[in-house]
Amino acid sequence: MRFEDIREFIDFLENRGELVRIKALVDANLEITEITDRVVKNGGPALLFENVIGTNIPVLTNIYGSKKRIAWALGGDDIEHVPNRIRKLLGMVQGGPPEGFLNKAKALMDLIKVAGSQPKMVRNAPCQEVVLTGSDIDLYKFPVLKCWPMDGGPFITLPLVITRDPVSGARNVGAYRMQVFDRQTTGMHWQTHKVGAQHYQDSNRSGKKKLEAAVVIGSDPITTWAGSLPVPPSIDEFIVAGFLRGKPVELVKCKTIDIEVPANSEIILEGYLNLGELRTEGPFGDHTGYYSEADEYPVFHVTAITHRKDPIYLSTMVGTPPTEDYFMGLASTRLLLPALKMVLPEIVDISMPAEGIFHNLLIISIKKSYVGHAKKVMNAIWGLGLLMLTKSIVIVDSNVDLSDYSQVAWRVLSNIDPEKDILISEGPLDDLDHASNTPKYGSKVGIDATSKGKIDGRTRPWPSDIVMSNSIKELVDKKWSKYNINN
Fold first, then answer.
1. What value does the mean pLDDT take over residues 141-155?
2. pLDDT interval class at 208 (50, 70, 90)
3. Which sequence spans correspond to the domains of the chain?
């Protein structure tokens, strides 16, 4: 299952009853957000708004807003098919060199497939059917959403922002919100710890006057999702997308800047950021469920807009969880697990509940082997890339089902001795964290909710779980219909 562009995915969803075309006249100012928010929270379909006030460009929302749709978007029927592919690939590393001719040949073919994930350049692209420059550039012709009443203006909420490292030239793709300031400029809200912000800072240090950037709106579903992945700076998100698609991402060079963009995209904004030029951006109703405060961020100047002849504007809304971004993050979490287990093999599973908005809560189950093992895992997590921003880490035993939050809560509340099992640390926090007194820095908590025994120096016996015998369970299963219980 592979989608060449967002249009193929629309057709796919519509054929399965997972997309609704809304023909009623709607407003990009607040109304689309309210409709989408109600649909997401009720497990509803993707939405294509075909009649938006002031424009002939339709708005597409909620394409990822369920486990089923995010799995389809990534090319499978189950969300676990992505980590299973990663596990299979990493298994070659975990198991050492493959033995035997057939195994070696198979490993070689797998590596060839990964090598074949490198992007492919093309000369002609659908995303450049229309080219607008100079006075023809007008961002207000596009149905950019104002999502919440106190937002500082309309925001592009699902862009892929492409920049290059000013020294190495390595490409980065990130998802950063962009407030539309006027016809030809926007804000660029890249947070302190993101790679785009690092490119901007490094350009400033190297004495350059500007940083070129391209903004992609509405690529194929895998490539769009890949831009939100928290991968290391050395990994090209387009290579990841190509691997997951089973086919290289086709790129075309921009018209006015030296950056390549996905050829199958709906809309491209080309431009640059003057180093040192800042403007007040925000407030914005964020995925935390709170408004993020207005602050100073770089300004993006548009030098060209290219798009398909009849473009579709892909957007999302965030707010009080769960919203669509939760399902995008859920897929990222499943992709992260195999790589995380390579570094910390004691990890069995991980979970980031919607209410934790990604950086506020990470639940981990482990196979515990020694005293202090849970605290070792906490400290290791706080030292791994963007996981350093995790504010709360909860560690439980390997037999705990992390998808059952009732079971997790029971284990945590029952198993902790607060004086010994709670670790308070300090370090970097997410830019959007409002609880700490100092922006971007504050305290974190780790909770060891594993069972305790002799390896922990415990002398008092730990109680056994209450579990019914399998023979009685089987007996009751066989006789259930005879009990005449309706549920």
1. 97
2. confident
3. 6-73, 81-110, 111-314, 344-456
Q: What does CATH list as the number for 344-456?
A: 3.40.1670.10
Q: Is 286 a catalytic residue?
A: yes
What does the H/E/C string look like for the chain?
A: CCCCCHHHHHHHHHHCCCEEEECCCECCECHHHHHHHHHHHCCCCEEEECCECCCCCCEEECCCCCHHHHHHHCCCCCCCHHHHHHHHHHHHHHCCCCCCHHHHHHHHHHHHHHHCCCCEECCCCHHHCEEEEHHHCCHHHCCCEECCCCCCCCEECCCEEEEECCCCCCEEEECCCEEECCCCEEECCCCCCCHHHHHHHHHHHCCCCEEEEEEEECCCHHHHHHCCCCCCCCCCHHHHHHHHHCCCCEEEECCCCCCEEECCCCEEEEEEEEEEEEEEECCEECCCCCEECCEEEEEEEEEEEEECCCCCEECCCCCCCCCHHHHHHHHHHHHHHHHHHHHCCCEEEEECCHHHCCCCCEEEEECCCCCCHHHHHHHHHCCCHHHHHCCEEEEEECCCCCCCHHHHHHHHHHHCCHHHHEEEEEEECCCCCCCCCECCEEEEEEEECCCCCHHHCCCCCCCCCCCCCHHHHHHHHHHHHHHCCCC
Mean of all residue pLDDT scores within the chain: 91
Confidence of residue 93 (pLDDT cuts 50, 70, 90): very low
Give the active site residue among 5, 151, 236, 286. Answer: 286
Asked whether the predicted pLDDT for residue 339 surpasses 90, the reply is no
pTM for the model stands at: 0.88
CATH number of the 111-314 domain: 2.30.110.10
